[in-house]
Fold this sequence. Notes:
Layout: H1 8-14, H2 22-29, H3 36-47, H4 51-63, H5 67-74, H6 78-87, H7 96-102, H8 109-117, H9 119-125, H10 134-153, H11 158-184, H12 186-200, E1 212-215, E2 220-223, H13 227-231
Antiparallel strand pairs: 1-2
Amino acid sequence: MLVRKLNEKDYLIRGKKTGIDPLVDRIIADVEGTSEEAKFFKKGEELRTSKLRRSYIESCILASNDYVKIGELLELDPKFVEFYESVFYNVSGLDRLERLELLEDEEDTLKLWAVSQGLDFIAWRLGRKVELSPVEGLKDLFSTCVYKSKEAMFNKNSSDASKEAAKWTKLAMDIGRLLKMWIVDTAAAKKDLEIALEKVVPNFGNLDELDLELDLATGEFERFVDEEEDKD
């Protein structure tokens, strides 16, 4: 495991150890706690008492160093996010393997997913809208199934490995066919989408009525503008 202490500054502040770090010295000197840094320290200590809140902010910090984006996602001041990393969870400068090593003894699936999937996964977990085209989504699922199948084949238990490999291989084939349909057969893809929309939108009709055109490269629909209408 890494020897580095992630919350070293927090340790120094609580132990009132001065002369080591300027930020630590300023917070210790502010007895009244009126400075922004002192307020951030108090807020950080309170946040760390909640396992859920702590898990989310530290997962975001593991996934990205974009403090503005993290702040928008968690509805926190970006300056506080940066302060939190510096004092309570200093992972700056760590590479991907070192960040994964940090999680070796932690039972925190959210952090592991954050490192592997980034902030979009956390945004989805928080109920935020995440833009993802059907084609890109299918490609992602297809690659996951293929590699899960390969992973199962290396399982020491041959019986379990056979069942797992067969399951993931079938899923990969099903998704592959669907992906091919989306890319090659526009009409079939539109029909599938219309059927899905009819389930949530009564009397939907069809996509042609909306003047939408399917972009095969992305799987997204764009507004179709007739040349004659455009001239008008």
